[in-house]
Design a protein that fits this description.
Radius of gyration: 19 Å
Number of domains: 2
CATH architecture of the largest domain: 2-Layer Sandwich
Mean pLDDT: 89
Helix content: 40-55%
CATH class of the largest domain: Alpha Beta
GO biological process, one term: DNA replication, removal of RNA primer
Catalytic activity: Endonucleolytic cleavage to 5'-phosphomonoester
Number of helices: 9
Largest sheet: 5 strands, mixed
Family: Belongs to the RNase HII family.
CATH superfamily of the largest domain: Ribonuclease H-like superfamily/Ribonuclease H
Shape: elongated
Distance between the termini: 59 Å
Order of helices and strands: HHEEHEHHEEHHHH
InterPro entries: RNase_HII, RNase_HII/HIII, RNase_HII/HIII_dom, RNaseH-like_sf, RNaseH_sf
Cofactor: Mg(2+); Mn(2+)
CATH topology of the largest domain: Nucleotidyltransferase, domain 5
Structural class: alpha/beta
Length: 224
Amino acid sequence: MVRKTLEALAEGMLFFEGQLRDRGFKRVAGIDEVGRGPLAGPVVAAAVVLPPDVDLPAVRDSKELKPSQREACCREILSCASDVGLGCIGPSEIDRINILQATFQAMLLAVQALKSPPDFLLIDGPYKLRMEIHQEGIPKGDKRSLSIAAASIVAKVHRDRLLSDYHQRYPMYGFDRNKGYGTAQHLQALREYGPCPIHRLSFRGVLAVSGDGVKEDGDPSTKR
């Protein structure tokens, strides 16, 4: 019963892709991002092109999945997708151009990272990219389009892995658990140690608790 329910959900989530293929668009890319809200780390976007006969019944919005489920789904997506691209914009660039523009830039990079250009973009949210490609923004698209849901999972898994790697360098902030979000433990670490090089210095949550000093290489005794 659960399998049939998931299959029905996945079939419904291919509505947009099916409509576009009926109109002649063969390479439809779903676009989504993760990491707009955290106080640290990059914003990451993914672009995923799925084949017409794709079978991914367990794929849905990455926020609804446990980490182990996301990892398993990501492996499935990467094994069956026609094409996958990733775009990543780091904290210093986020501070320079603002998080919204950084999000758009990450999406552009994800599309450009595809092996072949898509002929239509399905974008999570009411957004349009500055690209000469047919496109449509879909509010709550990660719950309504399988391609967008797949992109949300790929982006989330990639970013979570990056933050786990950063934890090895800056262990006092707990990036392996909070993934850069402003948890109570993370905010307390900011008060105690100040920001490290992957913190977003323009974000209010960082400014409010840390002052201006940035620690070098995770050493609590060093400022620049």
